[in-house]
Design a protein that fits this description.
The protein has 13 helices and eight strands. It is α/β, with parallel strands linked by helices and 288 residues long. It has two domains: 162 residues, Rossmann fold; 116 residues, N-(1-d-carboxylethyl)-l-norvaline Dehydrogenase, domain 2. It has an eight-stranded mixed β-sheet with strand order 3-2-1-4-5-6-7-8, sandwiched between helices. It binds NADP nicotinamide-adenine-dinucleotide phosphate.
Length: 288
């Protein structure tokens, strides 16, 4: 069974270590900048040699996961390469969605292979990550000869695989950011509207959640654009005009965003086929 090292044992590193340990992989170095954190991480994983030296931690491992924050991945990899910590033929992996495997270039020069393997998932704690990584989609990008190992890793983590070309990594990450971060921003917009009605922020969040869950469930069930409902999907121009009037009065600073999202919603309604071209044009006019 392959030996795995975790360099940067935070939320993701600890979860990956724990799942792979449970799948029978041998855990080598578990590295953090503080020994107390490395020890706690090894305890969570249930195996591994805690330490603060990434060179020592990576030595002798078949798979080295560099799961530091994104900004430290390149320099951590360079440090291990300079210290001779990578074995020939070993595989170095980072799990950032924003960066390509090219930040692991120093490992390639040292004779190792490099992959980026990114879970399309939002992970707040190691416990949650252990539950949510299985069943998540993972993207893989990097050295062709390392893809079989990449598949083995994703399979061991219980994930599903999507391959993406390295040069489109930023585009891929933009999709994940829109699905997760922009969704939060749109929900913040909805909460602001309810605050303008006099609701408390926490009440407003609670009030919209059943609607949000229902919508997300519909997207999962019937997909996009079919999950679109509401006045734009129905071509109800008067109602949308009423929204614009109300926002002009009570939340004018958000009108630009309402209209921009509305214009894209018109495209979704047209694609669904529930909105006629004629009503679509009327809506586009008032959403300009
Ligand atoms: N969390 C998510 O939702 C998520 C989802 C997908 C992908 N990812 C990716 O997973 C990677 C790790 O993210 P994370 O959320 O697990 O971050 P995290 O919880 O902040 O963990 C990073 C760990 O790296 C350690 N560290 C920082 N600098 C280091 C260095 N120079 N050398 C060694 N260890 C160092 C930190 O501990 P010390 O401070 O003790 O060193 C910390 O334990 C990132 O590439 C991130 O983009 C995260």
């Amino acid at each position: 069974m392959k030996k795995v090292s975790i360099i940067g044992a935070g939320v993701v590193g600890q979860a990956v270590g724990r799942i792979l340990r449970e799948r029978g992989y041998e855990i080598g170095g578990v590295v953090s900048r503080s020994i107390a954190k490395a020890e706690a991480a090894a305890a969570f994983i249930g195996a591994g040699e805690p330490g603060t030296d990434p060179v020592k931690g990576a030595s002798g491992a078949d798979w080295v996961f560099i799961t530091t924050p994104d900004k430290a991945i390149r320099e951590t990899c360079e440090r291990i390469a300079q210290g001779g910590g990578f074995s020939k033929g070993s595989l170095i992996i980072h799990m950032s969605g924003a960066l390509g495997s090219n930040v692991l270039e120093s490992a390639r020069k040292a004779g190792a292979r490099a992959l980026s393997i990114h879970p399309i998932q939002s992970l707040a704690s190691s416990e949650q990550a252990v539950r949510n990584l299985p069943g998540s989609y993972f993207s893989i990008e990097g050295d062709a000869e390392a893809i079989p190992d990449g598949r083995e890793i994703v399979e061991a983590l219980g994930g599903l695989l999507v391959m993406i070309p390295g040069e489109k990594k930023a585009l891929y990450h933009a999709g994940a950011a829109v699905a997760s971060n922009y969704l939060v921003a749109v929900l913040d917009f909805a909460v602001m509207i309810y605050e303008a009605l006099g609701m408390r922020r926490d009440e407003a969040v609670k009030a919209i959640m059943p609607l949000v869950r229902g919508t997300v469930n519909n997207v999962e069930r019937v997909g996009v654009p079919d999950a679109l409902t509401g006045p734009i999907a129905r071509g109800d121009v008067e109602t949308v005009a009423g929204h614009i009037e109300a926002l002009e009065k009570y939340l004018p600073e958000m009108l630009t965003l309402y209209k921009a999202l509305g214009r894209h919603t018109v495209s979704v309604g047209l694609a669904k086929g529930s909105l006629s071209g004629e009503d679509g044009e009327k809506l586009q006019k008032i959403l300009k």
